[in-house]
Amino acid sequence: MRRIPKFSLLHAFEAAARTESFSMASDELCITPSAVSHQIRELESYFGRKLFVRQNRRVELTSEGRRLLESLSRVFETIETACDEVRLAPQEQILAIYCAASFAVKWLGPRLPEFVKACPDITLRLTSGAEQIDLSRTKELDVVISYNEPPARKGVVSHALGQEKIVPMCAPLLLSPERTARQQMPELVLIESQLNRVKWSNWFALNGLALPTRPRPSFDRAAMSISAAADGMGVALESTRLAEREINRGDLVVVGVDEFEPILQETHFLSYRAVEKNLEKVRAFREWLLSQTDIAPATH
Length: 300
Known about the structure:
Elements: H1 7-19, H2 22-29, H3 33-47, E1 52-54, E2 59-61, H4 63-87, E3 93-99, H5 101-118, E4 122-128, E5 143-147, E6 156-160, E7 163-170, H6 181-184, E8 190-193, H7 200-206, E9 218-219, H8 222-230, E10 235-239, H9 244-249, E11 253-254, E12 263-266, E13 268-273, H10 280-292
Parallel strand pairs: 3-4, 3-5, 8-9, 8-10
Antiparallel strand pairs: 1-2, 5-13, 6-13, 7-10, 7-11, 7-12
Helix pairs in contact: 1-2, 1-3, 1-4, 2-3
């Protein structure tokens, strides 16, 4: 048995706390105001502390009541979402995706309207973050797109989404056409991406240049580094896949495209549970995503 009070008491509390009125809560719950008051008192007795300060025509939450409302609001929103999903038409499906934040913002997000148009019966639910998700334990997610290769886990299939070209890029105005990129690179402000496993030291060593030792601005997301570079702060060392819109618009240019060697690396990975590989929503998304990255769909 879970150690929680009766749901009817929590329901009455949430309605009264949200509306700041026992009367309005009673209208919403289709019970009398005295019944709401009785349920609130029973809940306060359960906790052994007051949740409301009673006034003439309204009620005000105590600090404990506010804390309870904050948590319950999230719980009720989750319950409401779950109920909405059950009410969907039988042919509709929910695809829960967890994605590396910068990949979601800079590359996946702009393409998702194509997937929605191609698969109208699949409803997307996208969340993002830097955490490595274990799909063998996290059952509420269907697929994960991670930055860096995820640890091998029994029952979970992972695919690399192809090699990415990692290069220095900056706003065009920072470069002088009268000097070579090799001459200018040591003088430019270098922007650090804290979570990027490819470091400036890797790139400078590959291209036979001495790494400048002066301080460097840093950001914890590739999307922020790319934006800072486009705004003229300095040079970002990032994937052309993530910066493709800025490059196509001319907001960013690749520094020394004919002078320097790029770093090629498999950076993003798609994962899903092996037992669900043929589930329509997982299969459809996998095949669509791999087609977007020019990778042949997996057959095993």
